[in-house]
Amino acid sequence: MRFSDPAGLLYRIIALLIAATVHEFAHAWMADRLGDPTPRYQGRLSLNPIVHLDLVGSVLLLLFGFGWAKPVQVNPSNFQNPRKGMLLVAAAGPLANITSMFVLGALPQLGLVEFAGVGGQLLREILFINAMLAVFNLIPIPPLDGSRILSGLLPARQAIAYDRLQQFGPLLLLGLIMLAPGSLARIINPAIIWLIRVALGDR
């Protein structure tokens, strides 16, 4: 992101507010539906963007094009099936972003938004941030959603061993972003571009 482009920066901030809210609200809503009141008690069952933003993740997203929102805290003991519950809660965030992309991607296909205008520029940014949050969070490195999804899919013994890596995940993830952003971009960008194209009906 070039900070010399005020309009582009504004579009990215708006897109971040929208996409991060959709992502984290979906986590909170799914946990609440499955019987865990923790997100509701902590004020996360909300469409207020401020309660969902993470300072470090937001800055990294603006600087490098990938980052994260404030994780929703969940108590799996409140779920009837804790492993399945955590898997569903984790998957809800990326799925919500992808769903938003298809809803918004229909606008230009219906002639409701022109890509050449301001609305089109903002739409492109919102599609990008939604795709980035969906793809980036599916990386199986703790504390990203992908790690919880993978843990829920693994056999119980392997899942326990995998979960022991949780404490090292944030350092590994931050190191990967700060030290090798180009390598990370090469891994996730093809999936991001593909998602955007599909959402716009360009297969």
Q: Describe it for me?
A:
With 203 residues, this protein is mainly α. The protein is 67% helix and 0% strand. The protein has helices at 6-33, 38-41, 55-64, 82-109, 118-137, 145-153, 156-163, 169-179, 181-199. The mean pLDDT is 90.
Tags for this entry?
9 helices; 203 residues; mainly alpha; 67% helix
User: Regions with pLDDT < 50 over 5+ consecutive residues?
Assistant: none
Can you count the beta strands? Answer: 0
Rg over alpha carbons = 17 Å
Mean pLDDT: 90
Percent in strands: under 5%
Classify the secondary structure makeup into a structural class. Answer: mainly alpha
Into which percent range does the helicity of residues fall?
55-70%
Number of DSSP helices?
A: 9
H/E element order: HHHHHHHHH
Show the helix and strand layout.
Layout: H1 6-33, H2 38-41, H3 55-64, H4 82-109, H5 118-137, H6 145-153, H7 156-163, H8 169-179, H9 181-199
Helix pairs in contact: 1-4, 1-5, 4-5, 4-6, 4-9, 5-9, 6-7
Q: What's a concise summary of this model?
A:
This protein is mainly α and 203 residues long. It has 9 helices and no strands. 67% of the residues lie in helices and 0% in strands.
